[in-house]
Design goal:
Domain HTH marR-type: 3-139
CATH architecture of the domain at 31-96: Orthogonal Bundle
Number of helices: 6
Number of strands: 2
Radius of gyration: 18 Å
CATH superfamily of the domain at 31-96: Winged helix-like DNA-binding domain superfamily/Winged helix DNA-binding domain
Shape: globular
Strand order of the largest sheet: 1-2
Helix content: over 70%
Strand content: 5-15%
CATH class of the domain at 31-96: Mainly Alpha
Structural class: mainly alpha
Organism: Gordonia amicalis
Protein name: MarR family winged helix-turn-helix transcriptional regulator
């Protein structure tokens, strides 16, 4: 097919990122789900949105007991904190700690710096095309996963 090379390139990138994520998890004695949870919570925070245990469970496809164990594990390691929501005291809000952010930056910082260097070689129009492509591919994968 005409664009199969793009699929293979995306697969190669995904494999490299998964290997790097596995190395991060191993080095920091984390489960793969722990890493996915931390990424999800960081992304949620970056978007200015509240993260709750229920949201995290739905996002990761976990049941309530597994989510509680996950949060307990991350909180026990000092990577996540829980707080009662000021507006609704029944709701618990989740936060990634500074220690977790530093741990992630120490490991992934060099990758982020390298990606920034790569990005500098592209025009604004090219970057908009890349963003659109990645958004559409991510949506397609999400639709397939949720089907």
């Amino acid at each position: 097919m005409e664009h199969d090379d793009l699929v293979h390139r995306l697969r190669a990138l995904t494999v490299e990122l998964e290997l790097l994520g596995s190395e991060f998890a191993s080095r920091n004695v984390l489960h793969a789900t722990d890493v996915r949870a931390l990424i999800a919570l960081l992304d949620r925070s970056r978007a200015g949105e509240i993260a709750t245990p229920g949201w995290l469970a739905g996002h990761l496809g976990l049941n309530s007991a597994s989510t509680t164990a996950l949060i307990d594990r991350l909180e026990g390691r000092g990577l996540v904190s829980r707080a009662r929501d000021d507006a609704d005291r029944r709701r618990v809000t989740l936060y990634v700690t500074d220690a977790a952010q530093e741990m992630g930056w120490d490991f992934f910082g060099p990758l982020i710096d390298r990606v920034r260097t790569v990005v500098d070689d592209f025009s604004a129009a090219e970057l908009n095309t890349v963003r659109a492509f990645l958004d559409h591919v991510t949506a397609a994968v999400g639709e397939l996963r949720n089907a």
